[in-house]
Amino acid sequence: MVLAALLSAAAAAWAGAPAKKPVPRHTLSGTITGLAPGHHAVVRANKHSSKETHTASTRADGTYTLRGLTPGSYTVRPSHPRYTFFPSFASVVVRDSDRVDINFRAKPLPPR
Fold it and tell me: Residue 95 domain-assigned?
């Protein structure tokens, strides 16, 4: 009897609790110029305050889109074993909207 009353009170309290707002998710996008046809770079965004990481590959035209980022500060870094990139990384703050034009330029490494 006591257990039923406690469960009933807990259910009533829970039903009246305000709904949690979903964490907003955003995208980062940009272009990497200078890649040879058929070469695709990998772009990673690492959140500074957690282990949250997002990864995307460039499309044939050099564009990329990182999806599902929560608000915060990120380091965005392109990579490819045959290229160096300028800038080598970008520091980006995601607040309340998507970010575009996070661009990089690829320069081929000299042959070994």
Answer: yes
Reduce the DSSP state of residue 15 to 3 states and report it. Answer: helix
What number of other Cβ atoms are within 10 A of residue 38's Cβ?
6
Q: Is residue 70 part of a domain?
A: yes
Q: Indicate the number of domains in the chain.
A: 1
How many of the other CB atoms lie within 10 Å of CB of 109? 11
Helix spans in the chain (H): 2-16
Say what the pTM is: 0.80
CATH code of the domain covering residue 76 = 2.60.40.10
36-58 pLDDT, tens digit per residue, is 999 999 999 999 989 999 999 99
With the CA atoms of 27, 33, 34 and 35 taken in that order, what torsion angle do they form, in degrees rounded to the nearest 10? Answer: 30
